[in-house]
Records
---
Amino acid sequence: MSKKQFQAESKRLLDLMINSIYTHKEIFLRELISNASDAIDKYNYLSLNEQNPVNRDDLKISISVDKDNRAMTITDTGIGMNEAELEENLGTIAHSGSLAFKEKMDKKDDDTDIIGQFGVGFYSAFMVAKEVVVESKRYNEDKAYRWHSNVQDGYEITECEKASNGTSITLFLKDDSEEENYSKFLEQYEIEHLIKKYSDYIRYPITMMVSREEGEGEEKHLVVEEKTLNSMVPLWKRKKSEISEEEYNEFYKTKFNDYADPMKVIHTHVEGAVEFDALMYIPSHTPFNYYSSDYEKGLQLYSRGVFIMDKASDLIPEHFRFVKGLVDSQDLSLNISREMLQHDRQLKVIANRIEKKIQTELANMLKNDREKYEEFWKNFGLQLKYGVYNDYGAHKELLQDLLLFTSSHEMKLTTLDEYVSRMKEGQDVIYYASGDTLEKIDKLPSAELVKDKGYEILYLTDNVDEFALQVMMNYKEKAFKNITQGDLNLETEEEKKAVEEKKEANKDLLETLKEALGDKVSDVILSTRLKSHPVCLSTDEGMSFEMERVLSQMPNGNPYGLKATRILEINPNHAIFNALQTLFDKDKEAVKKYADLLYNQAMLIEGFEVEDPIAFSNAICDLMVEASK
Ligand code: ADP
Ligand code: MG
């Protein structure tokens, strides 16, 4: 068979590995062991389902070295790869580890600090080897194949001899240089050390032939024997108090392909109706593909330490889909399929407990480590808000106390509970306002008086925010109130009366303005929500402006053309109102021109586009010319 070239992206990644000046090249061993362990998992699971259980003793990974040839071989008794799989898995970078790494690299030029912690996968072998040979035989297939590459010349796949299923990977180490000593990877001591450091929890024995001296004096002789280098106790089966933070973090990074430590570890053992161990993590950053459809939620599922499946999605509710981790339970059948899982009663119980556990942990973080929680919120807060909104609010009880919103109170993030605890005597609603940015909302004309009266306002900047509040309807019996919608009831009885009177006295003026605007507005009124600003736009209790905007941004638009009603409000205490009154007495027609100007200004303030910007600008110029006369 002729040589093939690596696919372009693979070549890039390989070059990066070969030329890497990264100092912890030792992680190649962790990667290859982790692949071997995955392969044994798959084999073990497959044979369980075929009612043809394997002998546990046959499941192992062994390491051997050949100092003369500067070679190290890692052999597993896993599922193996056939010709097509060798081609697919080792010639392209379609698989998880390296793909995620590549995405990261595309955004960053400096490789040195992220290679080490990242699950770069199989290609990391080329950090230490100049040549790699993979011999593999797929379970239940007859032929075995050899994949061979020195990178420069591409790779080739040929048939070979191999007795049983599994894979053996031989690395021919690079020559030592001043900067780098590769020979150390041939030393028994170094290998033992690396396995302990990175792969102790691997659930299959990792063995090596080791030699030690035995006997005294004359009797002294070398004994060579097979030694298991790892303790094999899965991390999640060990006592919490005996696991270091570093162990938790290392495990997370290799297992879940992240380059950064997690922000939170949740390790729990549950007994009762069902018994299980769960080891879960909250990432410290939003995964690059988190908001795309190729992000898959779920926890790895084990039964009595035997791997069953990756990403069992029923274990994690949508609103906590950022959680990564695994569950190991005695109470699940080994022969369970993905389809059966959905209906498994035990699994439902486990999923409920897990949901509750995550909620409690987040609530504790919020209570005890606010700074960390806000960091979490930055990464995944949006998800929680969608969680409140989704399924018609079915999860609002669970999630509402985990929500944060920026508020006018010190412009900081606040919980709803904190908001309510600061509410003024007699305040019976939770005020909120929406907009693109906090600054814009803070400057809204309708926000001024509310703040002035000492009420706090929640500032909503995400599309989902208002929808989430709508679904919640109220919090601790306090309804949510949009400051640009309906009556705010901010004035005293006296003030109310005064406005009523003014309204009556200026009926004709308001009527004329309304007529001039036609169907652009449903009404023109004297405002009770404005302090220093001349005009604003408000809407009735139905749909808000924000909702109209969000609807029109949806992929299929706003099919029913739903719009918020527009009410033009004029500040009766502003000089502009006097000007309108004076003008109205003099020239009713001129007032009509002003109506448009006021309306357009109000539209701009609310963040809408002006329908005819040219006409608007011309009208302002006319006014300026007029003023100079
Ligand atoms: P990842 O492990 O994240 O999928 P790797 O680069 O480490 O990425 O491995 C690529 C793929 O090659 C694996 O997904 C697996 O299908 C295959 N593979 C690697 N090593 C082995 C092995 N020892 N036995 C069987 N398959 C393997
Ligand atoms: Mg891997």
Note: The radius of gyration is 34 Å.
---
Amino acid sequence: MNDTTTEPTPSNFIRNIIDADLESGKHNKVITRFPPEPNGYLHIGHAKSICLNFGISQDYPDATCHLRFDDTNPGKEKSEYIDAIKEDVRWLGFDWADNLHHTSDYFDQLYAYAVELIKKDKAYVDSLSAGDIRLYRGNLTEPGKDSPFRGRSVEDNIALLEGMKKGEFAEGEHLLRAKIDMSAPNINMRDPAIYRIKNMSHPMTGDTWHIYPMYDFAHCVSDAIEGITHSLCTLEFEDHRPLYDWFLDELETPAHPQQIEFSRLNLDYTVMSKRKLHELVEGDFVNGWNDPRLPTLSGMRRRGYTPNAIRDFCSRIGVTKKDNIIEMSVLENSLREDLGENSPRALAVLDPIKLIITNYPEDQDEILAGVNHPKKPEEGMRDIPFSKELYIERSDYMEDAPKKFFRLTEGREVRLRFAYYVTCTHVIKDASGEVTEVHCTYDSQTRGGKSEDGRKVKGTIHWVSAKHAVNAEVRQYDRLFTIAAPASSKEQDYKDFINKDSIHVLKNCKLEASLLEPATAAYQFERQGYFCQDNVDSKAGALVFNRIVTLRDSWAKKK
Ligand code: ATP
Ligand code: MG
């Protein structure tokens, strides 16, 4: 792990089961796995599973966690996704060491296990059409009925499976099914599919196979081959557990892992299913998988989320069997806490207006000292250039301001952060009446923002020296959807709820010169929020910053 948190991981019901299994001697070491299908990019929901599985491997002696690509569907899977998934897992701070696997590594073994089932009369090749298979399956209230092909001989079944494997049949012509019970109350047990024909080459195995194993068969057998002790998955697989156990009871596998289910992470104001993420990306509703508004790990990384914040969030939400929707603000609070603790401060003006100090010498420059981190004196001070012409935030001046407006208006004195007290004398307006310059006088006896006579000012505003300023574009993000549960509307498509104002671009921002340094980490722009350079679009001479998150939860107020 490349950057460790000091907080111990809270226990949960899964860790309690593991503790008991180690105590009783059922296992002497724990092996978990994270088994993504490489059919898209990882999202924050996957992070919950990654933190759970890899977290266990870090906290228990001799424990390991395998990264296994569940690559059984070559039509939808790509090596681009495999690379991205590895990068995301590493970025989160986890390491699979030598335990990188693919379900396709086991295709020979899986096939041999399927033949074993046929020989035990526990599997058969069905030749019903897909439509008939559905009809024969029955439903929740009616039992299914046996396929007329259910009685095929072992020899016929083996020969047919062999032919399917070699590509002698068209897709959908035959299907290998487990022979369990067509009247089982649990529909997953009504002779589920084991192998389907797919005349498609595979990135790892080329054209060797014309059949690919189904998830329910491949997954439990792969777990068993790898000696996984605890196979942790989300609640929708609870109804599949009897099948998981059936396969492993029928087959002579080296181990029988225990499947334990926990609830998925759901977040409000976003969507997380890969199908929907694909739609958003492919339909150009967002700019790629790493769009900073998406809940993908690559999008969040680009936005400026830190691995620490995500791990902290996963630890706070815990692991239970209760289904719920977590508020985005919980995630953002973990983020704020980490950024507040770890990001240096800087001054940046996002909506600039000139401030001219009329009594400051024309050609004078000076260097003032800015505190890098108010809570970390060891991070010291930085140089901030100061001169006669500054930029301040347009909203820090108001004409005819009320008494409680502790910023600039004619006759009012404020502190320029780290600099001087200034008093507004007048403003210059253009023909349309818009303010273009705020004119002030300064008190040279208040250098560093402290007055010698002890006089107090209520407001402190940020600024940037005009001739030293660095230009930048700043992108401010808002929720991607306008309603909390966009995917749960029965009448409307979730895409109807896309927030049209989810990105707000400011082109003319003025940053403190120290931000010219190549910035890989986040900054707090004082009074504004947390920002970092965009890792795709920001270039020397054309800096682009993303607003990671505001200083406070402004969304709570809006609601
Ligand atoms: P999706 O439903 O978004 O397409 P998936 O479950 O099909 O996701 P996989 O690649 O199969 O995606 O997931 C890998 C692992 O991540 C699985 O063990 C799965 O249970 C877990 N996982 C996926 N989504 C979540 C989530 N929202 N919360 C917790 N775990 C999740
Ligand atoms: Mg899936």
Note: The chain has a mean pLDDT of 95.
